[in-house]
Write the structure tokens for this entry.
Amino acid sequence: MPKLYATLDAARRERGLSWRQLAREVGVSPSTMTRLANDYRPDVDAFAALVRWLGLPAEDFMIDEDDGEVRAEPELMVQLAPLLRARKDLREEDVRYLEEVISAALRRFSAERDLRAR
């Protein structure tokens, strides 16, 4: 639930909403947001409403705790590229520019991590 809460918080801040306003917009109770903040899982209907509002697949926030298998995160650009390309307010050259900027930042972060690890 921390990932869902963090994603909601980022979207909420980007839209300039309070948690109460977000709950109203999503169609869930404010207490649902409080429960998420306290690391409790929402009920199925609330979960569906939240991911629908975010416009992200529910699988992004689901984990299989039973198998114990550690899964590698997909590459960030693999996740971001379809989201950027789906935006109606971005031209193709805007998308390419954003992909270049994000890729450059990711390379820098990786290089910095490698330096610190030495």
User: Anything to note?
Assistant: Residues 27 and 109 are 38 Å apart (CA to CA). Residues 2-61 form a domain with the 434 Repressor (Amino-terminal Domain) fold (CATH 1.10.260.40). Helices lie at 2-15, 19-26, 30-37, 44-54, 76-86, 92-117.
